[in-house]
Structures are given as C-alpha cells and as structure tokens.
Amino acid sequence: MMAKTKMTAGAEIETLTPPELAGHLDRFTKHWYQEKARGVTTFRFDSTATVTGAGALTVPATAQPLIGPKAGFAWAVQCGRVQGLLSGDSLSIFRNSSSVPGNFVGQFTAGAPVMPFGSKGLILRGDERLIIVGSSLMATGDVTVNFEGIEVPDPDLYKLL
After folding, report:
1. 65, 84, 51, 44: which is closest to 131 by C-alpha?
2. In this structure, which topology does domain 41-160 adopt according to CATH?
3. Quick one: DSSP state of residue 61?
4. Nearest CA to 50 among 1, 88, 6, 84?
5. What confidence score (pLDDT) does residue 16 get?
6. Dihedral angle at the C-alpha atoms of 76, 117, 88, 93, nearest 10 degrees?
7. According to the 3-state scheme, what is the secondary structure of 81-96?
8. C-beta atoms surrounding 85 within 10 Å
9. Which pTM value belongs to this model?
10. Residues 6+ apart with CB under 8 A from 77
11. Separation of alpha carbons 125 and 131, rounded Å
C-alpha cells in the first residue's frame, strides 16, 4: 500500500535546500565508491618447474602451491606469461584437470609466451586451479609461468564482472 498525503490550501511542505541535497549526494557517492573498492586487490603468482628427460612438464610441480585463489576468494586472471620455452614448444593451460578436454583454457607457445585473458579475465573461484602441462618439449631446465590479475572475496565476485 502506498503512503498518501493530503494537501490543503496554504499548507507548507519542507524540501531540501540545494546545499543539503549536494551534501546527501556527496555522501552517497563517497559510500558507493568505497563499497566498489572494498575487498578488491591485485595478485601476482609465479611457479617454476623443471622439464624432465622425456621433455614433459607440469606446473605447478609436486609440493608447490596450487595456482588459484584461496578458499573464500575469486580471481580474474588478466594475463599469463611463460619463460624458458624453445622454438616449437607449447604448454597447454587447463582449469582443474588436464585429463578433461572441456577444461582447456589456452596455450602458451615459444612464439606467443604472453596470454591476455580479455577485459574481464579468466574467472577462478576458490575451488578452482590452473594446471599447465607440456610434452615433447625441446627446452631443458626450468620453465617459469606467472599470472596476474584481480582478487576479491567470493561474495564480491560481481565486482569482477
């Protein structure tokens, strides 16, 4: 039910003055921008693995931290890079499992060692990880991958969209 007001002749109503209205709008705008910025931060992550004698590589290597946000957080991965590949080498990027073709995200190559993930980024929730694998690599020694992007608490995931 809507509120009703009866107006009578000679009745006075009170409205905001221009300075009062400006003050309310300033406070609203300040609080709005503070809320938009709350909890938003950046992240950088790197991991190094050694190419095996068979030319195979998995990043992260055993006993290294997983590539993904901690529980309760979400990432918008903006860009990934690789260093240490030789001409003709490629690494495939998967979400959560490299054994499921539908989890394929993209590919690093020696000729394209930088992968931007678009304006919104590649969204990873707290239970999701990136796995990078390569086989028949010509490279020897260490290969390093790094990622950077934006991190927010899970309830603020809308801020990444």
Report:
1. 65
2. Jelly Rolls (2.60.120)
3. P
4. 84
5. 84
6. 40
7. EEECCCCCCEEEEEEC
8. 22
9. 0.76
10. 117, 121, 122, 123, 124, 130, 147, 148, 149
11. 14
Cα–Cα distance for residue pair 55/66, rounded to 1 Å: 22
H-assigned helices in 38-61: none
pLDDT score, position 1 = 64
Separation CA 130–CA 122 (nearest Å): 10
Q: Where are the domains of the chain?
A: 41-160
Q: Per-residue pLDDT averaged across 37-44, rounded?
A: 86
Provide the strand spans (E) within the chain.
41-50, 57-59, 73-83, 90-95, 104-109, 114-116, 122-124, 130-134, 142-153
Query: Who contacts 124 (Cβ-Cβ below 8 Å, separation ≥6)?
Result: 68, 69, 74, 75, 77, 95, 130
CA–CA distance, 123 with 100 (Å, rounded to integer): 18
C-alpha pair distances (Å), 13 with each of 2, 5, 19: 19, 11, 18
pLDDT digits (tens, 9 = 90+) for 82-101: 999 999 999 999 999 999 99
